[in-house]
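Entry type: protein chain
Record version: 2
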Amino acid sequence: MEKIFTPLFRLISIAILSYYPHCVFAEFHGTITGTTNYVWRMYSKSNNKPAIQANLDYQHSIGFYTGVTASSFNIGSSELDDSLEFEGSAQAEIIPYVGWNFKPFDDWRVDLQYSHYFYDGFIYTLEGEYDEFYLFLHYKDLLSFQTSYAKDFYGLIGDAYFYELTGRYPITDFLEASGSFGYANTKSVLSADYTYWNIGFTGKYKFIALDLRYYEAGETNIEEELEFLDHPHTQKGTIVFSISAGF
């Protein structure tokens, strides 16, 4: 893994330093989050238990940005057989990313992003590392659409495609309601597609944010003739509380 990390972070460092003379137009941001459940799309990445997360992000005025997100990680038992035990299971997830965003019109923003998912151990019997490419389209701060393509999703041979729509409504200056609906086209790697959604409220005061949210997911378009591989339990309905502190 060191062979992968070294050139990757060297590239990120060069990109940041190349803009050093213009740092007056750049910003660094950081966030630490504690959550009762790390739910991501149709799965829990913390086995429905609490997780701690951190993010460091660099943004330049020309639209370039880069950063890294880290989280505690526990994929849990396989939905195929709860009794199976897997040695060397990953306990941490690290996601470096790089991207560029721009405004084609006053109220619209386009965001292109590349992320790589690293794990410090196995996900079941797989190394788990994979690349994902994102396209985001934002209308003001009210509506966002994203689509992404993951190559060899979680180390499985095959492609996965994701589509997600998010809406936000400011109730007050400090309180916002929001919700998302997503579709995962993963039948070629997981023998099924998934729908997933969430709805909740976020309260912000200075550098603190509190989020209370309901999550749920379900399987659809199941391919019975394909062999099912080990995968996490599909996320049942659950309420998640998160608190974040940023700078």
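Comment: The chain has a mean pLDDT of 89.
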